[in-house]
Design a protein that fits this description.
- The structure holds two protein chains of two kinds.
- Chain A is an all-beta fold.
- Chain A has strands at about 5, 10-15, 20, 25, 30-40, 45-50, 60, 65-70, 75-80, 90-95, 105-110, 115-119.
- Chain B has no helices and eleven strands.
- In chain B, strand 5 (about 45-50) and strand 6 form a beta hairpin.
- In chain B, about 35% of the residues are buried.
- Classes of the chains: A mainly beta, B mainly beta.
- The interface between A and B is medium-sized, with 33 and 34 residues.
């Protein structure tokens, strides 16, 4: 069975601080995908990144960066120079990479980390 | 362009009432998912449609939950004889069917959700 653990329930930082959100996953699949989603107060889940299990290169997108460590089953997310608009709940998720004939795969989410950025 | 829309955004029901939640996926998206998000938790998979076919309903918590997508576009999640434990946000997501490659690759686009409160 798949499992995603986000041990940090809530993190509070002051604007311009860097913050790292942790994500640890469990799966028996050798091929899988990892995701981060942002859920602002409006409720809609906003896709941030997808990473497949074959690609352990770290990725940077503006103030966001992701550190994928297959050896420790972790996929951590860092926000550099945080801003008030970054305040939201962030979810890490895991998806099996099923064969195309099955046509779909579902997402297994962690419980989320609420990030509060104060001015 | 239009994203995934859901209605109503908020629904209050008395225990024992039946409710119907609507999802309008992105036009042309063949795959449609329903998730349930309890307070302080991550979304959990309920059911999956490919066109009008319900291929997976393994996440539906009881036989009081029923989903349909009769014409392969709009979907309705119905909950009969609602209970307090049904209180949650119900999220709908749609994605394209994979043409090539692994099924896990396709990004799911989420709607804003329907917040159901059962009194």
């Amino acid at each position: 069975a798949q499992k995603v653990t986000q041990a940090q329930t809530e993190i509070s930082v002051v604007e311009k601080e860097d913050v790292t959100l942790d994500c640890v996953y469990e799966t028996r699949d050798t091929t899988y995908y990892l995701f981060w989603y942002k859920q602002p107060p409006s409720g809609e889940l906003v896709f941030l990144i997808r990473r497949n299990s074959f690609d352990e290169q770290n990725e940077i997108s503006g103030r966001y960066s992701w550190n994928f460590q297959k050896s420790t089953s972790s996929f951590n997310f860092t926000i550099t120079a945080s801003q008030v608009v970054d305040s939201a709940v962030y979810f890490c998720a895991l998806s099996e990479a099923r064969l195309v004939n099955s046509g779909y795969s579902t997402l297994t989410f962690g419980k989320g980390t609420m990030l509060l950025v104060s001015p | 362009g239009a994203g995934v829309s859901q209605s109503p955004r908020y629904k209050v029901a008395k225990r024992g009432q039946d409710v119907a939640l609507r999802c309008d996926p992105i036009s042309g998206h063949v795959s449609l998912f329903w998730y349930q998000q309890a307070l302080g938790q991550g979304p959990e998979f309920l059911t999956y449609f490919q066109n009008e076919a319900q291929l997976d309903k393994s996440g539906l918590p009881s036989d009081r939950f029923f989903a349909e997508r009769p014409e392969g576009s709009v979907s309705t999640l119905k909950i009969q004889r609602t209970q307090q434990e049904d209180s949650a946000v119900y999220l709908c997501a749609s994605s394209q069917v994979p043409g090539q490659g692994l099924a896990g690759y396709n990004e799911q686009f989420f709607g804003p959700g329907t917040r159901l409160t059962v009194l």
